[in-house]
Design goal:
alpha/beta; seven-stranded mixed sheet; six-stranded mixed sheet; binds NADP nicotinamide-adenine-dinucleotide phosphate
Length: 490
């Protein structure tokens, strides 16, 4: 796909700091490439410590005024930002497909999904209530008020270049916080375009600051935020290993943390399930974004009585998936993000096969299309000792495991340090209630594969992190509670 934007100026190559588009302090740049072709799309600022410091200076300065704004005024600006995101859907989707590789239909869907968080938190901004605590002593009055935590550092992954950042910036701004932000090395362009639309929407200078950086430089830049006591909160989406690192490194200044981390989602199909619905749900949950999603089913447990039938239905659908670059309007699966990702998928499939799994469909790289493509794959006879069971594969591979009893399925599903999403299909309402309660996950899809919604609290348990994004709870992570005790009233 040629980069054809209706508004060429949405392709930003500089950082956005203090309301100004600016080069990295040392003028360094790095290339952003298209994973479908390996071609360079643009050279962007390669930010380091000095740029991070400048962003914190700007955010810290802007925080004084922004937190004093009426919530209604902040809401108005967020609403304008939402409108601009929606108006520029085609350009944002093009940038996303170019730098991330997902098919255009998915990119357009992600623009709408990301924008929905901006609209949601525009509405929530005016509902930040406190409490007047019932009087406990004569002459004393107690209140609890909610205040913005201050400067927030938002760090996001490459798999959802727009939605992950929108669902952090929107609640932060709604709450009255200011933001310094670093998107992933591979996908800074969508984030920078979002920053430009925020500027057009009237977000004041310094309230939102966005830096691009290559991997090594990004660690330096984020390191500066971790050590700076003016940054009061880190909101991070990414791998569990990096989440733990951020928790350790921010301990010195005791920052508030929201960590949306890795998953290893089980997908359970019971004998009494509606098999057609289960296959449709699995296809949506597993193969969206080429399987590169934190909530995508990684382990598919199917009860013995329906195992063969389910496998047959699944293979028919997976065989029909169209793998192609985003330029192809029929594309359903694009390239993986980079060669390292393809190598991990291949390693998982090879390991599974060497330990007794069989390939029902796929199981190969698609080198004719390019170096980053892997065929949609279904494996059968998967077992617990395989890498694919223990680690996130992050690719279009569905391993099937056979189970006999409900107890066994729950034990297998929970046998992981992760706890982000879990799915199960059943027609038995008592089982539905029972299994929903016993699954160790922050998000459960019950007869449903599409769980994402701005109105729902999204987040994990166990090593999938803490904090919730979206819903009426999504603002809590950006607020602190102040208790005021007023005395001598009599
Ligand atoms: P990642 O390697 O943890 O990177 C995430 C972000 O952190 C990127 O911006 C990355 O920059 C940055 N980063 C990496 N190492 C860092 C360090 N030492 N110090 C500071 N920043 C650092 O994760 P990823 O591979 O991009 O994304 C995939 C992971 O995200 C998967 O585990 C997936 O499950 C998880 N995820 C979770 C959710 C959720 O909501 N729970 C949603 C989406 C994805 P670079 O890009 O430059 O490395």
């Amino acid at each position: 796909m040629e980069l054809r934007l209706q508004r060429e100026e949405l392709l930003r190559r500089q950082n956005f700091v203090g309301g100004v588009w600016t080069d990295a302090a040392d003028m360094a740049r790095y290339p952003v490439t298209n994973p479908a072709t390996g071609k360079v799309i643009a050279e962007v600022a390669n930010s380091g410590k000095a740029d991070a410091r400048a962003a914190t200076d700007a955010a810290s300065e802007a925080a004084r005024e922004w937190r004093q704004r009426l919530p209604r005024e902040r809401a108005e600006i967020l609403r304008r930002w939402h409108s601009l995101i929606v108006e520029n859907t085609e350009d944002l989707a093009t940038l996303m497909s170019m730098e991330q590789g997902k098919p255009m239909t998915e990119s357009r869907g992600e623009v709408a999904y990301g924008a929905s968080y901006v609209a949601w938190f525009a509405d929530e901004a005016i509902r930040i209530y406190g409490d007047l605590i019932p009087q406990q002593q004569r002459g004393k009055q107690m209140w609890a008020i909610k205040e913005p935590v201050g400067v927030v550092a938002a760090i996001t992954p490459w798999n959802f270049p727009l939605a992950m950042i929108a669902r952090k910036i929107a609640p932060a701004l709604a709450a009255g916080c200011t933001v310094v932000s670093k998107p992933a090395e591979d996908t800074p362009l969508t984030a920078l375009a979002l920053a430009m639309l925020a500027q057009e929407a009237g977000v004041p200078a310094g309230v939102l600051n966005m830096l691009s950086a290559s991997r090594d430089q990004g660690i330096e830049a984020v390191g500066d935020w971790l050590a700076d006591d003016r940054v009061r909160k880190i909101t991070f989406t990414g791998s569990t290993a990096v989440g733990k690192y951020l928790a350790r490194e921010s301990a010195g200044t005791l920052k508030k943390l929201s960590l949306e981390l890795g998953g290893n989602a089980p997908f359970i199909v019971f004998d009494d399930a509606d098999l057609d619905a289960a296959v449709v749900g699995l296809m949506a949950a597993k193969f969206r974004n080429g399987g590169q999603t934190c909530v995508c089913p990684n382990r598919i447990y199917v009860q013995a009585g329906v195992f063969d039938k389910f496998a047959e239905l699944l293979v028919a659908r997976v065989s029909a998936l169209k793998v192609a670059p985003a330029t192809d309007p029929q594309a359903q699966i694009g390239p993986m993000i980079n060669p390292k990702a393809v190598a991990k998928i291949a390693r998982h499939v090879d390991d599974a096969v060497s330990k007794g799994a069989s390939v029902l469909v796929g199981g190969t790289r698609l080198e004719d299309l390019g170096q980053n493509y892997y065929a949609p794959t279904v494996l059968t006879n998967a077992t617990n000792d395989m890498l694919i069971t223990c680690e996130e594969t992050f690719g279009p591979v569905a391993p099937l495991y056979r189970f006999e009893t409900e107890e066994q399925a729950i034990t297998l599903a929970n046998d992981t340090p992760f706890g982000l999403a879990a799915y199960f299909y059943t027609r038995d309402m008592r089982r539905a209630e029972r299994v929903s309660r016993r699954l160790e996950a922050g998000v459960v899809g019950l007869n449903e594969g599409g769980v994402a919604s701005e109105a729902a609290p999204f987040g994990g348990v166990k090593e999938s992190g803490y904090g919730r994004e979206g819903s009426k709870y999504g603002l809590d992570d950006y607020l602190s509670i102040k208790y005021v005790c007023q005395g001598n009233l009599d």
